[in-house]
UniProtKB/TrEMBL annotation:
Protein name: G-protein coupled receptors family 1 profile domain-containing protein
Species assigned in the record: Amazona collaria (yellow-billed parrot)
Xref: InterPro entries: GP183-like, GPCR_Rhodpsn, GPCR_Rhodpsn_7TM
Domain of life: Eukaryota
Any single Pfam family the record assigns to this protein: 7tm_1
Alphabetical UniProt keywords: G-protein coupled receptor, Membrane, Receptor, Transducer, Transmembrane, Transmembrane helix
Gene3D superfamilies (alphabetical): Rhodopsin 7-helix transmembrane proteins (1.20.1070.10)
Length: 289
């Protein structure tokens, strides 16, 4: 009996020692991801901006690239605030800044995905859009995001629960609410479905062109353009899909997250979505342009 109690006590003590160690390790991974993204993303944005200024390209794709540059810049400006919180383990910038910093990553993710889809569709169907039409469409996306979505999120995101002023990015508590669960499932379903359809279509087109132009496939502009478009699908598969897949698991198992380990894993997958800002470096190397 005493031996059994000693074993249980030792197991509990070992568990209590392991949890802080795991938490520390996850915080280190989280911090490293954001540092890499901040450094690589900033370098890519600066170099791509310089190249665009020199070339003064008037193509439709350039409009999307400029929009991605602005999106990435806004997101990169928010990363130092996150790093400060993860390093100091204390939020020092107020509740509004916390909500805004948290919201920026989600807006960046979905707006980036929307612009990727635009680029893929234009190249996939070889659409000839006039520059003015593309500018109007991109402007509409920006206006809806800035004047509708952002104010709504700032008003309602993280407003139904009470949070400590020194904590941030703890809005996962609201995931228990039914309408939040529905919205999350809808976002996951839409992104995965769109990505799956575009992936199948893009692979089919690449296969058809490869058969048509074999063996000199790389000498044909049409094939190279479609191969470069597949780059954006790969970014979505690597950066966005893991976060959404884990989000489903997180929603279903949130009630079991007593030690906040799942929350930290969710933050790591969210940090992974910001790696899409490294796409500017790929543009510069000619992979996606």
């Amino acid at each position: 009996m005493l031996y059994a109690m000693d074993v249980v006590t030792q197991q509990n003590h070992s568990s209590n020692e392991t949890l802080p160690h795991v938490s520390e390790k996850l915080h280190t991974i989280l911090t490293a991801l954001y540092i890499i993204n901040l450094a690589g993303g900033t370098l890519g944005v600066i170099m791509m901006s310089h190249q665009l200024f020199q070339r003064r390209s008037q193509s439709v794709i350039t409009i999307f690239i400029i929009s991605l540059l602005v999106l990435h810049t806004c997101m990169l400006l928010s990363i130092p605030f996150r790093l400060s919180y993860y390093i100091l383990r204390e939020w020092k910038f107020g509740r509004f800044a916390c909500k805004l910093t948290s919201i920026i990553l989600y807006i960046h993710m979905y707006a980036t995905f929307a612009f990727y889809v635009g680029i893929i569709i234009i190249r996939l169907f070889q659409l000839e859009f006039r520059r003015c039409y593309t500018t109007a469409w991109v402007s509409a996306v920006w206006l809806v995001g800035a004047l509708v979505i952002t104010p709504l999120l700032l008003s309602y995101y993280g407003s139904s629960k009470t949070y400590h002023s020194s904590e941030c990015f703890q809005f996962h508590k609201e995931i228990q609410e039914a309408h939040i669960v529905v919205i999350n499932y809808c976002l996951v379903g839409i992104l995965v479905a769109v990505c799956a359809v575009l992936t199948v279509m893009q692979l089919f087109v690449i296969y058809r062109l490869a058969v048509k132009y074999w063996p000199d496939i790389n000498s044909h502009t049409e094939f190279r353009a479609q191969a470069k478009s597949f780059f954006f699908i790969l970014v979505t598969l690597v950066c966005f899909i893991p976060h959404h897949a884990f989000r489903v698991y997180y929603i279903q198992n949130y009630h079991l997250d007593k030690d906040y380990k799942l929350h930290l894993y969710n933050e790591i997958f969210l940090a992974l979505t910001t790696m899409c800002c490294l796409d500017m470096l790929c543009f510069l190397t000619g992979i996606a342009h």
